[in-house]
Amino acid sequence: MAPQSDSGKNVQHGAALWHGRFTQEPAQELMAFTQSLSFDQQLWPFDIIGSLAHVHMLGATGVLPSGDVAVITEALHAVRTEFETGVFVFIETDEDIHTAIERRVTQLCGDVGGKLHTARSRNDQVATALRLWCKHNVAQIVQRTFGLVETLVLRGDESGWGQDGIYLPGYTHLQRAQPVLLAHHLAAHAWAMLRDIDRLQQSLERLDVSPLGAGALAGSSLPIDPSVSAAQMGFGKVFANSLDAVSDRDFVAEILFDLALLGTHLSRMGEEWVLWTTEEFGFAHLDDAFATGSSMLPQKKNADIAELARGKTGRLIGNLTSILVVLKGLPLAYNRDLQEDKEPLFDSVNQVSLALTAMTGMIASATFHPDAMAHAADAEALAATDLAEWLVQQGMPFRQAHAVIGELVRQVLVSGESLKSLTAAHPSLGAQAAQLIGDGVGVRQRKSPGAAGPASASVQQKLLRQEIDRLQKISA
Fold first, then answer.
1. What is the spatial distance between Cα 105 and Cα 99, in angstroms, rounded to a whole number?
2. Position 23 pLDDT exceeds 80
3. Phi first, then psi: what are they for 437, rounded to 5°?
4. Conformational region of residue 448, where left means phi above 0, alpha means psi within -120 to 50, and beta covers everything else
5. What pLDDT is recorded for position 26?
6. Which CATH class is domain 11-118?
7. Relative orientation angle of helices 304-311 and 313-327, to the nearest 10 degrees
8. Quick check: is 184 catalytic?
9. Which residues have a Cβ under 8 Å from the Cβ of 177 and sit 6 or more positions away?
10. With pLDDT > 70 as the criterion, what percentage of the chain qualifies?
């Protein structure tokens, strides 16, 4: 039986494609340590796209005759079919997906296959495939993020933006602060997600540069035209500097930062859902399909999706740190260290994709408890700022008003009397000010532009939809 590769596919024996300068076969220890096939196999569709574009360019510029171009192109399509049907066979000396594909092309079409790598290095080949992979997969992340945004907006619309909308306490320092509409709270997370989309779209725009044709580092003496292959692959621009083209991994670092920050936003959201679904808060409960139980405690219902969204963020931040440390000391141009760009990138994209899908399902299927939210938000102490601002409207300086209301709150704590009764009896406040304390009153006082009450809700709804539409047009 043939030995197995790390992917579990059958492998056969053969020589490394670069063996010509060497008198000995590579040591197994060398191959084991330097291989990337175990994780870069997912680049195969994009390597084939790049190879097809490259051989098309070689034909268009007259570097290869049309007959050779046709033979190599047919072999590349055959290799694509082998991957799609799961019959592609790796051999022991396939260091990475790029050498595996070239080796198979040469097997299929003989010596003509050796012309595929004309005017091309693995350096520009790998950079091209990775950029194509990023264009495809980051675009999918953007669409999944739009899905979460739409879910947040929909749940907000369901909860209501008007006078009768569901409201809950807003928190600072995890202490109840002022009442806010639930729609406003959910929209706050939507705005953060839209910034994530904006950043990812900008990263996609910056990485839309083809490095193919840069060669190992300095281009080629052959009359190639990198703009032909770039257009064939759908890149918007062509590299201007061959050294930069093969060594640039800014786009990987940018994407990893974007995903780390997106993960941070998911983590903050997850933290709230962990709290909201506890019995102590009781603001929401999760659908059974999006919660887990305990192996020991029969009564438990756990928000594992929210907890893992929180926990995996450390992994995303670690992946970003990893690539920055790899890049920080590299001289121009290509160094094998750059092989370490893929595993962090692939992992972050995969984990964020899973998290977005799971969080979207969790929030879409959850049930809110308006009574528990309102009970917490209607606590008398949450009217304190409104009372101080009422005094400001009567002409009292804010710092003095703050002190007056602070003293009332202290009296409540000492005497046990209600804030409303103390307010009604206070000479600077009275019955009119006491009307600011009551069920559902506080949230309606949030009137300033962009505030958390119904007065400015229609403006926010419009702005939110405009930003969604703007970003969706960019992604279209």
1. 10
2. no
3. -105, 115
4. beta
5. 82
6. mainly alpha
7. 20
8. no
9. 169, 170, 171, 382
10. 96
Tokens of 393: 């409207």
pLDDT at 249 over 80: yes
Residue 227 is predicted with a pLDDT of 98
Amino acid at 21: R
17, two tokens: 């494609």
Q: Which amino acid, residue 297?
A: L
For the segment(s) 129-165+176-202+240-375, the CATH number from 3.50.50.60, 2.40.128.50, 3.40.47.10, 1.20.200.10 is 1.20.200.10
- Please state, for a pLDDT cut of 90, what percent of the chain lies above it: 92
142, 475 contact by CB (below 8 A): yes
Q: Any catalytic annotation for residue 38?
A: no
- Average pLDDT for the chain: 94
Q: At what angle do helices 97-109 and 44-60 cross, to 10 degrees?
A: 50
Neighbours of 217 (CB within 10 A): 17
Encode the chain in three state secondary structure: CCCECCCCCEEECCCCCCHHHCCCCCCHHHHHHHCCHHHHHHHHHHHHHHHHHHHHHHHHCCCCCHHHHHHHHHHHHHHHHHHHHCCCCEECCCCCHHHHHHHHHHHHHHHHHHHCCCCCCHHHHHHHHHHHHHHHHHHHHHHHHHHHHHHHHHHHHHHCCCCCCCEEEEEECCEEEEEEEHHHHHHHHHHHHHHHHHHHHHHHHHHCEECCCCCCCCCCCCCCCHHHHHHHHCCCEECCCHHHHHHCCHHHHHHHHHHHHHHHHHHHHHHHHHHHCCCCCCCEECCHHHCECCCCCCCCCECHHHHHHHHCHHHHHHHHHHHHHHHCCCCCCCCHHHHHHHHHHHHHHHHHHHHHHHHHHHHHHCEECHHHHHHHHCCHHHHHHHHHHHHHHCCCCHHHHHHHHHHHHHHHHHHCCCHHHHHHHCCCCCHHHHCCCCCCHHHHCCCCCCCCCHHHHHHHHHHHHHHHHHHHHHHC
pLDDT at 34: 85
**Contact (CB, 8 A) for 169 and 178:** yes
Residue 453 CB neighbour total at 10 angstroms: 23
301 to 271, 297, 298: CA distances (angstroms): 16, 9, 9
Domain definitions of the chain by residue range: 11-118, 129-165+176-202+240-375, 378-475
Catalytic residue among 7, 38, 294, 418: 294
Query: Do 237 and 209 contact (CB within 8 A), yes or no?
Result: yes
**Homologous superfamily assigned to 378-475:** Fumarase/aspartase (C-terminal domain) (1.10.40.30)
